Amino acid sequence: MKINYKSNKKIVILISLACVIACGFLVFFCILISNKKKATPIDLPVRIALIDTGISENAIDSNFIETGYNYVNSNEDTVDLIGHGTAVASIIAGSEIAGIEGLCNEIVLVPLVYSTLDEDGNQKSVDVEVLSQMIRDAVDIYHCNIINISSGIKTNNEQLRKSVEYAKECGALIVSCAGNEGTTDIYYPGGYESVLCVGSLNKDLSQRASFSQYNDTVDVLAPGEKVSAATMKGNAFNVTGTSYAAAHVTGRAAAIWKASPTLTNDEVKTKVIADLN
Question: Is 116 exposed, middle or buried (0-12, 13-18, 19+ CB in 10 A)?
Fold first, then answer.
């Protein structure tokens, strides 16, 4: 039988070419997958939006505070008139005048005021629609990595849910409190899956505090009963509530992100839960 060497040579060439093309596609695919796994590092310092009552510069070092916005009065006056936001800020950033050590020192706090006092001393707050916009603004305008929300509502609001999901898609981590009624009722935005929902430990850190909500949406418990915080004048006092447990978790999350800027929001959330459980 006569062997057709020319035909066999063509087959060998075609097979070799196919192998080269296949290898090229494989290399391209591996590069694509590799690039997908590389997270873009966040810019330090870690930027934290405090959706709260403002911050008092009498208690918190002004170097930690950036210009925010008062959504109640529609201006840039974010001075705390109630004290809640200052206490939360002191747990995260510390207060030298009150002798409180912060949980992370490479942060920027952006006060976004959702509740304050009017001229008669009555408390006034924004509605859920404005709260939803505040979450979006925390990402779009103030470029925050963490959004601390020490409040909540019992209604699963669609606009609020969409804002929470938007913030997550933009790479931000939302930390919110579980509530202080000691029941199984769910508070939102803490009740949404992407939010890091925080309940409180008791004073000796041995179990859940009796006032802290308990349900499947609570991701972690943190110190929140009789913990040290700063007043608006810069004095130390003890505070109790899941708001302050959430502040503790926000500070822990900021410290983790500072140490590992390439982590994603989901990875930071997972690490916080693993560290505290």
Answer: buried
